[in-house]
Amino acid sequence: MPIITVNMIEGRTLEQKAGLIKDVTAAVVKNTGAQTENVHIIINDMKKGDYGTGGIVK
Question: Which end of the chain is less packed: N or C, by CB atoms within 10 Å?
């Protein structure tokens, strides 16, 4: 049972998230042989300021 976690800065629509879940699920099924119903996708929406790179808050 693959469990995929995606962390993103908040602001995507439900439709965008649904598309991402569909596409990621298809990629996992194609590359691992897992059954579609066994692929779990978790999207974590982060607030701006809860993320940084290179020492800079984004």
Answer: N
